[in-house]
Design goal:
The complex is a heterodimer of chains A (151) and B (186). By secondary structure, chain A is mainly α. The longest helix of chain A has 25 residues. Chain A is globular and about 50 Å long. Chain B has one domain: Ferritin, core subunit, four-helix bundle (Ferritin). Helix content of chain B is 65%, strand content 0%. In chain B, α2 packs antiparallel against α6. Chain B is elongated and about 60 Å long. Classes of the chains: A mainly alpha (151), B mainly alpha (186). Chains A and B meet through α4 of A and α3 and α7 of B. Bound molecules: fe (ii) ion (FE2). The site of fe (ii) ion has 7 residues of chain B, from α6 and α7.
Chain lengths: 151, 186
C-alpha cells in the first residue's frame, strides 16, 4: 500500500507544492475570480462569474472512495484547471497572476501523475518505469473501472 | 500531433443500462451540434486563424472537444453494454443494432448519420468564429434538452459538465470574435 490509512490527498498536495507563494496565490483580490480545482471540475469551470447554472440543478460533488481514486481524482482536478485556465491564457497570455496559478496546477498535476504512474501504471505511453509494457493493460477509460470509479 | 492520456476529462461511471437515454445521447456525438462536429470544426479552422491567440484557442478547444467525444462515447457504451437485442429493439434501437451492434457510431437522436455538412471552414476567421459561437449555443441547448429528459445523477452529472463547457467555449469564441472584428475589419 502506498499510503497509510486516512491518506489526505489535499494535505499531500499542500506538502509537495514547492511554490513559496501559495498563500498569495489563493488569498488576494484576483483569487476571488476563480474557484478551486475541485469545485472547477464539479461545475465545469474555474471562473466564478462564468458559471451559468441550468434550472438551479447543481452537479454532485465528486468523492473518491479509495486511495487510488483519490490520486486519480486529483489528476482529473488539476488537469481540468490546466485546461480551463489554458483557454483563458490563450487570449490573455500576459495575465501574470493567472499564469502563476496555471503553473502551480501544472506542477501539482505532474507530481500526481508521476505518483499514480509509479504505483498503478501509465497515463501516458512515455511512462516506462516497469519491467514490461504496461500501456495496454485494462481498464481503459471507457471501461467501467477505468480509473474513474468514484462517483 | 496528438498524444493520448489514459483518462477521461470528467468521470463517467454508469451502473445501469438506460436505452432511452442511450438513443438520445448519441446526438451529443453525431448530431449537427455534437462533439465530433465540434472537434473537427475547430481543428480545421485553426489553420486559417490569423494570429497566435486564435491558433492557440482553436487548437486547444478542438483538443478538449475530442475529450468530449470520448465522454459521450463512454456514456453510450455504458448505457447499452448490458442490453439484449430484444431490449434494444423495444427502445427503437433495432435499426442501430442492425448496422452497428452495440458499437459506437456517430448518428443523431433520430438515427441520421454524421455528415461533413455539419462543419464549416470559410477561411475567414471572423465568419468562422461566428459559426463557432452558434455551434456552442446549439450544443448547450441540446445538452439542456438531454438534462430535461433524465434525473439519474450518473447521467446528469457529466451532461451538466459538458453543458457548462459549451458556455465557456462560447465566451472564449465571442471574445476573440469581437477582437478580430475590430482588428481585421473582416
Ligand atoms: Fe464546445
Amino acid at each position: 500500500m502506498l499510503f497509510d490509512n486516512g491518506f489526505d490527498v489535499d494535505l499531500y498536495m499542500k506538502n509537495i507544492s514547492n511554490l513559496k507563494n501559495n498563500d498569495y496565490l489563493y488569498n488576494n483580490d484576483n483569487s476571488n475570480k476563480i474557484v478551486s480545482d475541485k469545485i472547477g471540475l464539479q461545475k465545469g469551470n474555474m471562473f466564478k462569474d462564468e458559471y451559468l447554472s441550468y434550472k438551479g440543478i447543481s452537479p454532485d460533488i465528486i468523492e473518491a472512495k479509495t486511495e487510488k481514486d483519490a490520486l486519480m481524482l486529483k489528476i482529473y482536478e488539476t488537469c481540468f484547471a490546466i485546461t480551463d485556465l489554458g483557454l483563458y491564457l490563450d487570449l490573455h497570455p500576459n495575465d501574470s497572476y493567472m499564469y502563476e496559478v496555471y503553473q502551480n496546477y501544472v506542477s501539482n498535476f505532474e507530481k500526481c501523475k508521476d505518483m499514480f504512474e509509479k504505483n498503478y501504471g501509465p497515463i501516458n505511453n512515455t511512462f516506462v518505469d516497469s519491467s514490461n509494457y504496461e500501456w495496454i493493460k485494462n481498464p481503459w477509460p471507457w471501461d467501467k473501472d477505468g480509473g474513474t470509479k468514484y462517483v | 500531433m496528438f498524444k493520448y492520456e489514459k483518462k477521461l476529462e470528467y468521470p463517467v461511471n454508469i451502473t445501469k443500462k438506460n436505452l432511452e437515454m442511450a438513443k438520445y445521447i448519441l446526438t451529443g456525438l453525431g448530431g449537427s451540434a455534437g462533439e465530433l462536429a465540434a472537434a473537427t470544426r475547430y481543428y480545421i479552422q485553426s489553420f486559417s486563424m490569423p494570429d497566435e491567440r486564435g491558433k492557440a484557442l482553436l487548437i486547444d478547444i478542438a483538443t478538449e472537444e475530442l475529450a468530449h467525444v470520448e465522454i459521450i462515447s463512454t456514456m453510450f457504451r455504458q448505457l447499452v453494454k448490458d442490453a439484449t437485442p430484444e431490449e434494444l429493439k423495444s427502445y427503437n434501437l433495432g435499426d442501430y443494432y442492425t448496422e452497428h451492434g452495440k458499437g459506437v457510431y456517430p448518428v443523431n437522436a433520430s438515427g441520421m448519420p454524421f455528415t461533413a455538412t455539419y462543419i464549416q471552414s470559410t477561411g475567414n476567421p471572423v465568419v468562422d468564429l461566428a459559426e463557432d459561437m452558434a455551434a456552442e449555443e446549439k450544443a448547450r441547448a441540446s445538452y439542456e434538452s438531454l438534462i430535461d429528459l433524465t434525473d439519474n445523477p450518473e447521467i446528469l452529472n457529466p451532461l451538466l459538465f459538458l453543458r457548462q463547457r459549451e458556455v465557456v467555449h462560447y465566451n472564449r469564441f465571442k471574445e476573440l470574435y469581437e477582437d478580430y472584428k475590430n482588428k481585421y475589419k473582416l
